[in-house]
């Protein structure tokens, strides 16, 4: 593709970027290369590859041709310099953090993020000596929490599950003022609805398990970097000082704009080992091909569901960033002009018991721990994805006991509404309806 002559649109790139037809076989799909290792041309080439003097495929823990095709497509869609695929979204976050921070360092994260990320940062990484301050994800609050040893800011484009939209440009300005990168988890938005790098973000992480794959079949993650951040400025010694793990290589000096991606892949991924399997990369490529179409349909159905819930007497409140009066309304208009995603949260009148009754009465909506599937899913965050959080962390994340999270799928909207209506009636009939207690 000659991008210099013509600038291709998102749908075209989702289909073609990184995955041209195979010149040997003519196959139009990327071959699934299930090979652990790759034959060296010579002793000299093997030495060059292992010492990072040349770039190539050594072993599938660090790189694999099918995984590389998927990485190239994702980097292209996010507008980044490159990507590293990981075994899960959690692994993408871990590798992002360990590529720039070590014991004694500090991060600032929004408190309105996925519960698993909160515990990863507040328990596991803290045990490893990397502390995180959780604050409201506004530029002002995050600026105040920055310390001398802060190495990055972390937010979600659309917070899980609150739907809080991040002020990406404001946050990028705060991060850059402090000489640190802005890491954005873009799982809920996907690059079709928002490309945070265009708004100043430096590192993007994804749970590719969700919309990117889109069919609820795999667990996968992705880490993308803009290539714009100056890793040699001295704030991140892991990148600017000699590494004992490669005979004193200095990543920022040797790899310039590729410093972060090279360290993430060749040092952190090498040692952590949370790589994406080629088979899952292959499935992810299939999912990415239709991302634009699916996101359009998720958004259309979510709008319909949010409107239906707003007008239902059994519903205490509805949160979807596009609804007038939602605290993120203005930010959604600015950063998510194509739509605010496929997640709608709401409170069932009658609080937690009513929410539980409602979920049990649904037929079409699957009660399971995932989102971004083609099928519609429902969950009670306080007792599942965010159940490890303490009460004050739940409150900071905007999670109430009556909150139900809907991941609106691609079914006929009339059928989704039919099922919601039935389940709301069942919650009311069970006598748990009434004034919201959540
Ligand atoms: C916003 C967000 N980020 C990261 C993750 C973790 O991803 P994974 O389950 O692929 O490890 C999740 C999982 O629900 C999520 O919702």
List keywords for this structure.
about 40% helix, about 450 residues, Aspartate Aminotransferase, domain 2, five-stranded mixed beta sheet, globular, binds pyridoxal-5'-phosphate
Task: Describe the structure in your own words.
By secondary structure, this protein is an alpha/beta fold. The chain has 2 domains: 3-288, Aspartate Aminotransferase, domain 2; 291-429, Aspartate Aminotransferase, domain 1 (Alpha-Beta Complex). The protein contains 17 helices and 12 strands. The strands form 2 sheets. The chain has a 7-stranded mixed beta sheet, sandwiched between helices. A 5-stranded mixed beta sheet has the order 8-9-12-11-10. The protein binds pyridoxal-5'-phosphate. The site of pyridoxal-5'-phosphate (PLP) has 15 residues, from helix 4 and helix 5.
N-to-C order of helices and strands: HHHEHEHEHEHEHEEHHHHHEHEHEEHEH
**Total number of beta strands:** 12
Give me the secondary-structure category.
alpha/beta
Can you say what the CATH homologous superfamily of the largest domain is? Answer: Type I PLP-dependent aspartate aminotransferase-like (Major domain)
| Strand proportion | 5-15%
The whole-angstrom Rg is 22 Å
Characterize the biggest β-sheet: 7 strands, mixed
- Which ligands appear in the coordinates? pyridoxal-5'-phosphate
Query: What is the quaternary state of this protein?
Result: single chain
Secondary structure tally, helices: 17
Low-confidence stretches: 433-438
Estimate percent helicity.
25-40%
Distance between the termini: 54 Å
């Amino acid at each position: 593709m000659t991008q210099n002559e013509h600038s291709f649109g998102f749908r075209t790139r989702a289909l073609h970027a990184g995955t041209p037809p195979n010149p040997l076989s003519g196959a139009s799909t990327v071959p699934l290369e299930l090979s652990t290792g790759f034959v060296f041309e010579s002793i000299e080439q093997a030495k060059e590859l292992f010492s990072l003097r040349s770039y190539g495929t050594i072993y599938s823990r660090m790189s694999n041709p099918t995984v590389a095709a998927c990485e190239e497509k994702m980097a292209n869609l996010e507008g980044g310099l490159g990507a590293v695929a990981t075994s899960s979204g959690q692994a993408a976050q871990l590798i992002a953090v360990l590529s720039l921070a070590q014991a004694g360092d500090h991060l600032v994260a929004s408190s309105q993020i996925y519960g698993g990320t909160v515990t990863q940062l507040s328990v596991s990484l803290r045990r490893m000596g990397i502390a995180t301050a959780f604050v409201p994800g506004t530029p002002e609050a995050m600026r105040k929490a920055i310390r001398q040893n802060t190495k990055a800011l972390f937010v979600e484009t659309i917070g899980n599950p609150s739907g809080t939209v991040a002020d990406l440009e404001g946050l990028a300005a705060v991060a850059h003022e402090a000489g640190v990168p802005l890491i954005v988890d873009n799982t809920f938005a996907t690059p079709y609805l928002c490309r945070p790098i265009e708004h100043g973000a430096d590192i993007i992480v994804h749970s590719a398990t969700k919309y990117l794959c889109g069919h609820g079949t795999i667990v996968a993650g992705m880490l993308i970097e803009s290539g714009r951040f100056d890793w040699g400025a001295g704030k991140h010694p892991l990148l600017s000082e000699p590494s004992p793990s490669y005979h004193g290589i200095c990543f920022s000096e040797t790899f310039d704009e590729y410093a972060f991606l090279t360290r993430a892949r060749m040092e952190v991924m090498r040692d952590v080992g949370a790589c994406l399997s080629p088979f899952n990369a292959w499935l992810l490529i299939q999912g990415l091909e239709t991302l634009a179409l699916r996101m359009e349909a998720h958004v259309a159905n979510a709008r319909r569901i949010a409107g239906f819930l707003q007008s239902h007497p059994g519903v205490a409140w509805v949160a979807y960033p596009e609804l007038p009066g939602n605290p993120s309304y203005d930010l959604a208009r600015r950063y998510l002009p194509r739509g605010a995603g496929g997640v709608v949260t709401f409170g069932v009148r009658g609080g937690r018991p009513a929410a539980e009754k409602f979920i049990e009465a649904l037929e079409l909506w699957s009660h399971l721990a995932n989102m971004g599937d083609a099928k519609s899913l429902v969950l009670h965050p306080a007792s599942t994805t965010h159940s490890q959080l303490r009460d004050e962390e739940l409150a900071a994340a905007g999670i109430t006991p009556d909150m139900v999270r809907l991941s609106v799928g691609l079914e006929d909207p009339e059928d989704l509404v039919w099922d919601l209506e039935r389940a709301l009636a069942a919650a009311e009939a069970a006598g748990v309806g009434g004034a919201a207690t959540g």
